[in-house]
Design brief:
By secondary structure, this protein is of the alpha/beta class. It has 3 domains: 3-262, Alpha-Beta Complex (2-enoyl-CoA Hydratase, Chain A, domain 1), CATH 3.90.226; 293-475, NAD(P)-binding Rossmann-like Domain (Rossmann fold); 503-608, Orthogonal Bundle (N-(1-d-carboxylethyl)-l-norvaline Dehydrogenase, domain 2), CATH 1.10.1040.10. Strands 12-11-10-13-14-15-16-17 form an 8-stranded mixed β-sheet, with helices on both faces. The longest helix is centred in the middle third of the chain and has 24 residues, at 330-353. Bound molecules: acetoacetyl-coenzyme A and 1,4-dihydronicotinamide adenine dinucleotide (NAI).
Length: 725
């Protein structure tokens, strides 16, 4: 049964039963209508408690039903109106999560009791829609317009203690949530309920309200460039302010339908399910890591406390895992210790605000210079400089010091995992755990399997990712792995565009209007231009000097842009030096301002090389950069480095500021249409045979040849095609 009912004293306890998260599918809605009907009619019932089974109230509407006919049966808002109108008091007993339609259901109840560990929220905006079962109309009436706008537009999960402060729930309890809800329900029998019916609450409509909504709209336009759902959420709250409840609900429904027509919800829901499927992979032997029991990581160590190491230590500690943090000398150890402690203090403060006792939540960190102390640690993450010889030296030491079953991980951003593993006595337990900066905040974790990495090592690393609250994606071992490898052709096109006539700010603006959090030039300035430059110099890959002393625009027979190298030669490393593709008010400054020096330099560069300046429209800029990115994605599929397009999209959505409402670069390719993408790449490639990265990938051609199937079918096509290569 999708819902059940039992009588406790004179209270009917109705329980939603739809594992794993009690999504409100059509069958659940039907069952709830029936159980409420029965409870309302039953003279023995004086009050009702609504709860969920298996420790969860409800995660909201069943996302899989969107776009199907199931969604048209009993509407959740009709059910909510029935509950709210009930003459018998109804109390929601919230355990686990009450999200989206789940919270909307609870808002229709007259009272809400929440367990201290529960979370509530209206996260619809994150899947491209808006709360469409009265949530945008009831929440502002309950907690006021400013707080409601914040909750609905950000879609964040709100811990119970904060929900109590905001007034979303009436009571927070430590345990026995349902019993306590029954007690509250009994106390409310016979009390007047009108004040508890949110739909008839008055709502303030004044000039201040208009200003507030206008500025929320302006902020959302800037922050979520191109995404329609945040704006629809604000419009719906505006309707709550201006219109009577039933009209507001109609507006909410209309907005839902118009959002659906934009295609953005489909992209974001694809991204939602891709994330849950991420990293599934079959070993050539047929084995699957998902079926292998992960080892428990009771203790961990991090070697190197620089930019990445300090974030990784914090992330482990946040997950309550005791960490040993190691550095190369006393000075670096002291610097690392200060940085880690300051990050931990911030985390503790956040936990305190959420009502947790911080000392009970954060794992301890022990700082040391002594490798001997790593003897008993379960898992070690190396995060020293990106230098193969240094990494090998560390792994040799780890191999001799650490216990036999310890896992050895490297945070390298692109070095060969097999080469690192080759110096150890346990290549099966060596794996890449590629965190993103800042590691305590960014959600993405690329888990890189080497040739010998065992399924148990993969399972343990993927599970650790989940424990750390990350989205872990399993990828194969190749230079730069997936995310950074795809960036190469993307940045190359950005550079070619400015050689040919665009300015950095034009390219950035086009990409930011497309929805990227940051255009390529602002991103390079933030990351530091010197990082790539040094690595190119180490490998002898900077543009060698042409006979006339000018930097060459060819490298190993291919077109090469020396612009970034020239900037670095003049000490322009980006934000850190206060100058790069842009200028900043000081070294470390963040406000990028177009630099006349750069534009003058570009003009001279074009003159020197006799490049005829031509302009490119924002559409052309986007096309060149994004098609280059996706084309490399097809190559990555071809090489078996990512096992499906969804994994690539999860990487880009969570690690590279890709606009989520566009689903990811591979999903975007599917919406552009593969034949069109192929044609554009072929035209470019024919005109520019010296740019191999734009040569259409074999996998793209093959997918077009089999009729350009929808993306959900690529996984099987990719498997079949990759086998034939
Ligand atoms: N609909 C359908 N399936 C859902 C779902 C939903 N709302 N929420 C979660 N699931 C599924 C997941 O796909 C996953 O399925 P598989 O086991 O088959 O992979 C399973 O439930 C467990 O989910 P997670 O792996 O994500 O588990 P978790 O414990 O890490 O997270 C969660 C649980 C916090 C509820 C998370 O799943 C989540 O955020 N869910 C979405 C919540 C949401 O967006 N709700 C709004 C829905 S739209 C709505 O309600 C519209 C409206 O106004 C009526
Ligand atoms: P960093 O230069 O900020 O820090 C490296 C740290 O390692 C320094 O504190 C240094 O003292 C320490 N170290 C060097 N030799 C050591 C030794 N023998 N024993 C102990 N500690 C030693 O470097 P960063 O940026 O943190 O990078 C670390 C690794 O993470 C590199 O492999 C890098 O490619 C990778 N990475 C970096 C990202 C970034 O954005 N910075 C992103 C993802 C991966």
């Amino acid at each position: 049964m999708a819902a059940s009912r039992r009588l406790v004293q004179s209270v009917a306890v109705i329980t939603i039963n739809h594992p794993p998260v009690n999504a409100l599918s059509s069958s659940v809605r039907h069952a709830l209508v029936e159980e409420f009907g029965e409870a309302t009619k039953d003279p023995k019932v004086e009050a009702i408690v609504l709860s969920g089974s298996n420790g969860n109230f409800s995660a909201g509407a069943d996302i899989r039903e969107f776009g199907t006919s199931a969604v048209k049966t009993v509407s959740l808002e009709d059910l909510n109106s029935t509950i709210e109108a009930s003459k018998k008091p109804v109390v929601a007993a919230i355990e686990g999560v009450a999200l989206g339609g789940g919270l909307e259901l609870a808002l229709a109840c007259h009272y809400r009791v929440a367990n201290i560990k529960s979370r509530v929220g209206l996260p619809e905006v994150l899947i491209g829609i808006l709360p469409a079962a009265g949530g945008t109309q009831r929440l502002p009436r309950l907690i006021g317009v400013p707080a409601a706008v914040d909750v609905i537009v950000r879609g964040r999960h709100i811990p119970a203690t904060e929900a109590l402060k905001l007034g979303i729930v009436d009571e927070v309890v430590q345990d026995n949530t349902i019993d306590k809800a029954v007690q509250l329900a009994r106390k409310t029998i016979g009390r007047p309920l009108d004040k508890r019916r949110l739909s008839i609450h008055p709502i303030a409509n004044n000039l201040y309200m208009q200003d507030l909504l206008d500025s929320a709209e302006a902020k959302a336009k800037k922050q979520f460039r191109g995404a329609k759902a945040p704006l629809a959420c604000i419009e719906a709250v505006r309707a709550a302010v201006h219109l009577p409840f039933h009209k507001g609900v109609e507006k909410e429904r209309q907005l839902f339908l118009s959002l659906w027509a934009t295609g953005q919800p489909q992209a974001q829901q694809y991204a939602f399910f891709s994330e849950r499927e991420a990293g599934k992979w079959t070993h050539p032997s047929g084995g699957r890591w998902e079926t292998v029991e992960p080892q428990r990581v009771r203790t961990a160590a991090v070697i190197g406390l620089g930019t990445m190491g300090r974030g990784i230590v914090t992330s482990l500690s946040k997950a309550n895992i005791p960490v040993i943090a190691m550095e190369q000398d006393a000075k670096q150890l002291e610097i690392g210790k200060k940085a880690v402690n300051s990050l931990l203090e911030r985390e503790a403060e956040k936990l305190k605000q959420q009502g947790f006792a911080p000392e009970g939540k954060l794992g301890t960190v022990h700082f040391t210079l002594n490798f001997g102390e790593l003897k008993e640690v379960d898992l070690i993450i190396e995060a020293v400089y990106e230098n193969m010889e240094l990494k090998k030296e560390i792994f040799r030491k780890l191999s001799s010091v650490c216990k036999a079953d310890a896992f050895l991980c490297t945070n390298t951003s692109g070095l060969n995992i097999d080469e690192i593993a080759s110096v150890t006595n346990r290549p099966r337990q060596v794996i890449g755990t590629h965190f993103f900066s800042p590691a305590n905040i960014m959600r993405l974790l690329e888990v890189v399997r080497g040739q010998h990495t065992s399924l148990a090592t993969i399972a343990t690393s993927m599970h650790l990712g989940k424990v750390l609250g990350k989205v872990a994606v399993l990828v194969g071992n190749c230079p730069l792995f997936v995310g950074n490898r795809m960036l190469g052709p993307y940045l190359e096109q950005a550079n070619f565009l400015i050689e040919e006539g665009c300015y950095p700010e034009e390219v950035d603006q086009a990409m930011e209007e497309f929805g990227f959090a940051m255009g390529p030039f602002r991103m390079m300035d933030l990351a530091g231009l010197d990082v790539g430059w040094r690595s190119r110099m180490e490998k002898g890959l900077t543009g060698s000097k042409a006979p006339e002393g000018l930097p060459a625009r060819q490298r190993q027979g291919s077109r090469y842009s020396p612009l970034a190298d020239i900037l670095c030669e003049s000490g322009r490393f980006g934000q850190k030096t206060g100058k790069g593709w842009y200028q900043y008010d000081k070294p470390g400054g963040r406000n990028a301002v177009p630099d006349p020096w750069v534009n003058d330099f570009l003009r001279k560069f074009r003159n020197t090389y006799q490049i005829q300046q031509r302009s490119s429209s924002p559409e052309q800029i986007v096309e060149r950069c994004v098609y280059a990115l996706a084309n490399e994605g097809f190559r990555i599929l071809e090489d078996g480095i990512a096992s499906c397009p969804e994994d690539i999209d999860v990487i880009y959505n969570n690690g590279y500021g890709w606009p989520k409402h566009r689903g990811g670069p591979m999903y975007y390719a599917s919406t552009v249409g593969l034949p069109k993408m192929l044609e554009v790449l072929e035209n470019y490639s024919n005109a520019n045979p010296d740019v191999p990265s734009m040569k259409p990938a074999f996998m793209l051609k093959k997918l077009v040849a089999v009729g350009g199937p929808p993306i959900k079918e690529w996984r099987t096509q990719v498997g079949k095609l990759a086998n034939k290569l």
